[in-house]
Specification:
homotetramer, 358 residues, alpha/beta, Aspartate Aminotransferase, domain 2, Aspartate Aminotransferase, domain 1, 2 domains, seven-stranded mixed beta sheet, four-stranded antiparallel beta sheet, 20% strand, globular
Chain lengths: 358, 358, 358, 358
């Protein structure tokens, strides 16, 4: 019953096998191996458009390098205040971007509120050199609260961004889950809705350490792409034996492997959400479109779960008290390895609970 | 009737005379002139404590260098969301601080809400290397909304900061106005209330371009002071003919000149506020302790004032509409050169106004 | 006959097997897995001292993060002018170090000339804030020209560094080769000779992508270590599934695997050097202690080698002309996979050559 | 007998008077005052071309901001190894440029050797992302060793720079002295010879603190100019009461004031050089075109001069010993305030000296 994150798992066996297979022989180094070219072709097919791809080992590197490639040091990047780039990357965008600024925006379920974006862009940069200037909009799909941006929602935000002179970045750590949750195509969820750069994460969905930074419409983005390439090297993210990354990504994208895994996680997530909705004392706090559920439980239930070995993270400042006693906010993430048995055992533990408030 | 800012004035004649007087002869360069030493002595007397002082030409340089001297690149600086460092310095703290982060906090009249600070510090850095770490609290006194922090309010915030491992910086662009507004001593408003570094601004109050960065308890702050000195040079802020700055500051601090000027501005500010309170259609929006008033006027009144030559800035997104028609938010700043006649002429213009809403 | 670099090979099969084996089960993420702890223990045994270890994917990241952890932005890092950090990392030290400076020093065979270091340190920082300050000495062992620093040579340089207030970093991309070339212990070649931080490279010697940053005497270096940890995360170099790195390093260090591989490369390198010395028209330009040879060949010989499929890099500005005609400077690197047959075939090709100068 | 530098003097009285005159009344702030516009017009006349001008307080700020505006963080700036940006600005170019690199070049009298530039540009960036890329050439005229670059020498270097994709920056701290030394027009010494950005220094030649950053052909340099403007604000170098700077520069440029002063310094410099050449034990080490002389004196002569109150700087590592005994390398700078009496008194002291070697 591990609902923490896919990070505590290893990689899918298929990925490790692919790495082993790619290990043999002499190949071009620094990203010039034939697998890297094949990854680019595969992604062009999947996204139905011309694109450029760069592979790096971490989502933090992917996001920060991408943002630095489209923002000057005096740029502002607009993001949700719960975004991974705002809360979990120790200031990586500011570091790679030479001291750029993030502007935190509100919005339910970690989806940016469109009005807040309009206002923030209007304020920012209105007084010339005295202020940092609008440079990029960063969206996360799935959001950090497990919600889905459908193409229409994305398009509203990217249109505002475009008008305000901003490039659009998407943190797609769980992009595969978003694709499978909504049934829209990768293209519809990205460049067709106005996304310029997608950081497509494989690490949380089966790879060991592999993230693809995808530039759509590469001819238009030539300057950003060149900037990315120098920053990647200078940031220590150009691995010499590039097959480390390309072999993972190639296998991950093959035969819908990436989507099948996401579908499995989503199915388990939906089963878990449905089960929790049946339980009187549990409140689901997010809008769980895929494999992430944020729920509030009575303290006693939480204790029973933990005692039984259930693993999950608490939300920040998780414990609150109201008329019904103390409750705890928790985050549950289903991975491809999550089984129906895991889910049902978890739900049983919840249901069994006898209310025990003082 | 110029209520924009002291920046559109020149310097006080006394300051220019002092600069001319100091111009003669050979003096040590790069801050080693005898006037610089005298400034340090004078400030030690005024603040009743041992201190180290560095002079720079702009408030932006003073603030950013001071913050960079106490925060690592992965530090968070807590400030009010309307702070000058957040809104008007084009990311200078992020630049000088190697990509540090500002965390914007709420609070009425641009005073930081103490609970918000407690929460923000608790959240920040709770998860180790994944987050930027609490590094500094930055207060502004007078605040950007013309309000006063009295020593007790300061002490509450600095105690929280200290517990959270933060150094305390005060942006004192209008520190002289704060001293005269509250009647507390410079020491009580700074180090005795927990401030480590004060950026004492003379430019808005009579100097041409002179800001003092004051480190209290210099023995304890030796590392920050050394860092400041290298950053100042490297930032191009160590002027060779240091008398440019020391002559201004020396004259400004002499015989309470700085305080007398602030008192004059405050008196005019209070006269203006009192007058505006008498006028039916005007709403004072801030808590004007000194020389700054934020007011909301009917659009017609604003137009009449402008037509008559009154100069002042509009607030961001200044124009709003409600049942009473369109109104305009404006900022009025009194300078030492502001006269009773200016104030009264302005008030007369306001009063004369016939409501003219459609 | 591939004498380019180990980067065009994959990893040793043993490393891939270890990665596969470590892939199973749930482990702590972000470097908290048990393999990481075992790597630290193993290195403590190998180096016969207490130490702290951090694993990253590239040598560029290892070097730049290490240097940034011991140098302020206004620091100078002294290195040989042919050092990898000076010539091949696209300014990574300057980037991670917030704009620090490298000072290029001369010296035969890419070993820093001791007198040049004494002078450079004396000059640097003599005029206080007007200059960047001595911060670190960076040595490479094996040097970029394939030469060995023995402990006595290291000690001379590190003593100068210490006197000048510099930390000592060693780029140990080919440290294993240095150990086997000289027969001195890892401890004698590092901390006992005054090295504070060793970047021990496995990637060029059998791993896929794994470099260990080793801090000796960690209690003394606590501030640098803390700085490293934040910079690593912020630099996108803290991989979530840490076993990727620890499994490689654990296997690489096991049962002298790392040293055996280096010994093999060195043996082939020495065989190649001995053979080349016998050939009249070939001049060996470096002092080949291990597996790297820099040689000068007649142009016709070079063409014949290339035509026969021999692969190797040219030196910068490789082609020169003198009384004997045009010659070409080349770099030959032996890898563990290099065979006696490779070496002998190469030598035969050289010998067969009929002088063909015009 | 002060031959240290113009920095220990105050400003010329004319400059102070101009500052006092400009102090009255309300003027646009942040560089929008009418004097700033007049300075731009005046410079356009003087340089016989369209240009954009920005005023800052220090030469370090001028140089570093200018270079950062034309170099990416992964850029290399080529300069002489004795250049002020290399030796005296504590890494300001690296700081403002986000970690750019300086490449130190040799050349007699601190003039860059043209072949060395050709080679350095060819090496730099030949291997793509692995290296920093050629970005700018920085010349100093007068050089740091008091030599003059005539237009033909400049053109050779700037042609190489242009071919290599570099912008050309000129540090013109003593540009006025260069103009008067060679008799060439300001235009011939700058843009007509291929200079893109000139940092024209007034501080060492009569101003209190004023440097002009001049962009020639501003339409072509629009991106660099925009970058400069944001960096200036963000660097704390946009002074609010802009008249501080524009008044100085306006007066300095008026009626050839700047050139007359330089001519006076040069005349004194040439008188001093001519006198020193007559003295047996003195060796002039530079090629003194204007107001700077580098000379080598017997130790006893140096002691006598110092005892008599002569002030000047020693060269780094100034004292050397040979068959004739110990000698001392010194730098003599004539300022506009230097008198014939000063020079002659100095020469007399030199001549009077009885050889006193052991």
């Amino acid at each position: 019953m591990n609902f923490t994150s896919d990070n505590s798992d290893g990689a899918a066996p298929e990925i490790i096998e692919a790495m082993a297979a790619a290990n043999k022989g002499v190949l071009g180094s620094y990203g010039t191996d034939p697998l890297a070219a094949r990854v680019e072709e595969r992604l062009a097919e999947i996204f139905e458009t011309d694109l450029r791809v760069f592979l790096v080992t971490t989502g933090t590197a992917a996001n920060a390098l991408a943002l630095a490639s489209v923002s000057p040091p005096w740029g502002t990047v607009f993001c949700h205040r719960e975004a991974h780039i705002a809360e979990d990357e120790c200031g990586a965008p500011e570091f790679f971007g030479g001291g750029l600024s993030l502007r935190h925006l509100p919005g339910r379920h970690a989806r940016i509120d469109p009005d807040a974006l309009v206002e923030a862009i209007a304020e920012c940069g209105a007084r010339g050199v005295h202020q940092t200037q609008p440079a990029a909009l960063s969206l996360t799909n799935l959001t950090e609260r497990g919600a889905l941006y459908r193409p229409d929602r994305i398009a509203v935000l990217t249109a505002t961004a475009r008008t305000g002179g901003c490039a659009v970045h998407m943190d797609g750590t769980r992009f595969a889950n978003a694709v499978m949750a909504g049934g829209e195509s990768p293209a519809d969820l990205s460049w067709r809705a106005g996304v310029d750069i997608l950081c497509l994460g494989a690490t949380k969905n089966g790879a060991l350490a592999a993230e693809a930074v995808i530039y759509f419409d590469p001819a238009r983005q030539a300057a950003a792409i060149s900037s990315f390439e120098f920053r990647r090297k200078r940031g220590g993210h150009l691995v010499s034996k590039g097959r480390l990354l390309s072999a993972q990504m190639d296998a991950w994208l093959r035969d819908d492997f990436w989507l099948d895994r996401a579908a499995r996680s989503n199915t388990m997530g939906q089963r878990l959400a449905a089960g929790l909705r049946e339980i009187a004392d549990v409140e689901i706090e997010n809008d769980p479109a895929a494999n992430m559920i944020f729920a509030r439980l009575p303290l006693a239930m939480h204790r029973r779960l933990r005692a039984a070995g259930a693993a999950y993270y608490l939300e920040p400042a998780s414990q609150t008290e109201d008329g019904d006693g103390i409750s705890v906010g928790i985050r549950l993430v289903c991975a491809p390895s999550t089984t129906e048995e895991d889910v049902d055992a978890f739900l049983d533990l919840c249901s069994d609970l006898q209310p025990a408030y003082a």
